[in-house]
Design goal:
The protein is of the alpha/beta class. The chain has 2 domains: about 170 residues, 3-Layer(aba) Sandwich (Rossmann fold); about 90 residues, ProC C-terminal domain-like fold. It is about 50% helix and about 15% strand. The chain contains 11 helices and 8 strands. An 8-stranded mixed beta sheet has the order 3-2-1-4-5-6-7-8, sandwiched between helices. Helix 4 links the parallel strand 5 and strand 6. Helix 3 runs parallel beside helix 4 and helix 7 packs across helix 8. The protein starts with 6 loop residues before the first strand and ends with a helix. Bound molecules: NADPH dihydro-nicotinamide-adenine-dinucleotide phosphate (NDP) and (2S)-3,4-dihydro-2H-pyrrole-2-carboxylic acid. (2S)-3,4-dihydro-2H-pyrrole-2-carboxylic acid binds next to helix 6. This is Pyrroline-5-carboxylate reductase. Belongs to the pyrroline-5-carboxylate reductase family.
């Protein structure tokens, strides 16, 4: 086993699958990965890919250089306490949980007078499943430059990575890109419903809506123009787009998006208080 790249996912659900899909075969082999999950069906799925599995934390964990904690926030304390006896001196712990502070987690993993400082908080999103994720990272002061590079390379295999300074930064990333795919899917669903209401069939509406999102996103990524300029290019004076944008404006579309992000961020803060 290549210890430098050996990984353990604690929790083998959606997010672990999304990250592993980009890592296995590129940054590590299936045999470099251990998945701990109490759910037999989940373990069977991973074992089918050649990954080592276990139902609960055990001594196999200590040989894994990087642990990715990918359980629900409300289960993280119990999981951290169960994994703690298997920490090696050089284990790098990466938590993907929303709304669990680095202070709480480093306390659970460490000793009363010595919190675990080799800790990275990571906020990825589900497009990581196809190597197109967006991800925020923050590191405590026990993480070396080499370990930061390792985290950057691992997450960079599946996502655009930005580093933030603290837990507040991770909460901001959560409200934008962590939860963001759901906002986009909601918008696409609404476009499809609108297309069907105007007489297109399901397939036509879906195909046009997806191509529009993909095309507009690619254009925005590749263009040197501002988003406002690109928007204005679509908007003929007195035309159809202006009529549609007037409706968005009247309902304060930007305000609604901002309010939704405020709610996501407030929920992350409330979870941090609840789960500390
Ligand atoms: N989904 C997303 O878009 C994103 C999620 N996240 C974060 O990722 C984390 C995981 O979310 P997600 O992957 O969606 O959740 P899932 O429910 O898909 O995966 C969690 C897995 O952990 C298992 N599990 C439960 N208890 C334990 C335990 N004691 N030891 C090991 N495994 C356990 C669960 O089993 P069972 O189902 O039987 O309980 C489940 O298979 C969360 O903290 C979330 O905040 C972060 C960014 C984006
Ligand atoms: O909804 C959630 O809490 C998680 C965190 C970001 C995306 N899913």
């Amino acid at each position: 086993m290549n210890k430098e790249l050996s990984l353990a996912f604690i929790g083998g659900g959606n997010m672990a699958s999304a990250l592993a899909a980009g890592l296995i075969g590129k940054r590590c082999g299936a045999h470099d990965v251990l998945v701990i999950d109490p759910n037999q069906a989940v373990r069977d799925r991973w074992a089918g890919q050649g990954v080592a599995v276990a139902p609960e934390a055990d001594s196999k964990l200590s040989a894994r250089r990087v642990w990715i904690l990918a359980v629900k926030p409300q289960g993280l304390k119990e999981v951290a306490l169960a994994c703690k006896p298997h920490l090696a001196e050089d284990t790098l712990v990466i938590s993907v949980a929303a709304g669990v502070s680095s202070a709480a987690l480093s306390g659970w993993l460490g000793q009363p007078d010595r919190p675990w400082r080799r800790l990275v908080r990571c906020m990825p999103n589900t497009p990581a499943l196809i190597g197109a994720g967006a991800c925020g990272l923050m590191a405590l002061d026990g993480v070396s430059e080499d370990e930061r590079r390792l985290a950057q390379q691992m997450l960079g295999a599946v996502a655009q990575v930005v580093w933030v300074d603290d837990d507040a930064g991770i909460d901001a990333v959560t409200a934008l890109s962590g939860s963001g795919p759901a906002y986009v899917f909601l918008f696409i669903e609404a476009l499809i419903q609108g297309g069907i209401r105007h007489g297109l069939d399901d397939d036509q509406a879906r195909s046009l809506a997806l191509a529009t999102l993909t095309g507009a996103t690619q254009l925005a990524s590749l263009s040197h123009e501002s988003l406002a300029t690109l928007r204005e290019r679509v908007t003929s004076k007195g035309g159809t787009t202006a009529a549609a944008l007037d409706v968005f404006q009247a309902r304060d579309f930007a305000g609604i998006v901002g309010e939704a992000m405020d709610a996501a961020r407030a929920r992350a803060a409330a979870m941090a208080a609840e789960f500390s």
